[in-house]
Amino acid sequence: MPQTIIYNQRNISVEDRTLKAKKVSKKTIIYLLLGVYALINAYPILWMFLNSFKDNMDFAKNPFGLPVQWMFENYKTAWETARLDTYFLNSVIVSVAAVIITVFAGALASYFLARFTYKWGKAMYGFFVFGMLIPIHATLVPMFILMKNIGLLNTHIGLILPYIAFNLPITIFILVSFMRAFPSDIEESAIMDGCGVFRIFWSIILPMTKPAIATVVILNFIHNWNEFSFALVLINDEALKTLPLGLANFAGQFTTNYGAQMAGLTIAIIPTIIIYMLLEEHLVKGMTAGAVKG
């Protein structure tokens, strides 16, 4: 009998070791795959950064290696050629203003669509979601005519309004999906404590929606920051042009200064990286929120 117990204990210990070894090997494979995926995504940024210190000759001969001579003046050339002092500020104004208005309006609309039941609620939600199917570039000519008729060509507002309109559908879609998962007990308790509708939205629902808000802020900012077509059509004043239009100045009729162009792109990508780093914690919380349920 004692020998049987010892034998069973040995079998259990062997099984535990086997399971632990499988878990470790599985984690190792997952981390290796994620590491390779991260390197694949990070390499274009590193490649762009390294090439921002090369001249055209070095770029043509050695596009994937380190610079033979580090051309730090490329950044000065990029700043002057693309007029980054003006265009950068314009992009910040337009992108930040559009993001703030889009997120606030989208969160308020999502609150009523997700937490209230009324006759035309589903139809209204479908109306907003249908906006995701509209091809943005097909509206360039009508948008130009509309902005011309109401006198908003060559203005910041003339860019901000289309950015808000085309970002609202995806914003509402994400926030409504997130808000619908909240239990109704939260609002019932707040109502018993004397909170009104907007107090509940501002003090309870909005803080709970931070992960989803971080997601839509990142998506909206990246779209607004990189948008080129509407800025090209609706803005002709040099003092109001945005950064993507300034970066197009590097492509000349016969030659292109690739080193300065890479330097300009490196400068242009910095705000998006900063925004992501600031909101990364909330974004990760939103992605893992449903993975820890009992």
TrEMBL record:
Keywords from the UniProt entry: Cell membrane, Membrane, Transmembrane, Transmembrane helix, Transport
What is the annotated localization of this protein? Cell membrane
What are the GO BP annotations of this UniProt entry?
transmembrane transport
A GO cellular component annotation in the UniProt record: plasma membrane
Q: How does it sit in the membrane?
A: Multi-pass membrane protein
Pfam families per the UniProt record, alphabetical: BPD_transp_1 (PF00528)
Q: Which residues form a coiled coil?
A: none
* Residue stretches spanning the membrane: 29-50, 87-113, 125-147, 159-179, 200-222, 258-279
Matches recorded under PANTHER family: ABC TRANSPORTER PERMEASE PROTEIN MG189-RELATED-RELATED (PTHR43744), SN-GLYCEROL-3-PHOSPHATE TRANSPORT SYSTEM PERMEASE PROTEIN UGPE (PTHR43744:SF8)
Protein family membership: Belongs to the binding-protein-dependent transport system permease family.
Return the protein name.
ABC transporter permease
Species name for this entry? Metabacillus litoralis
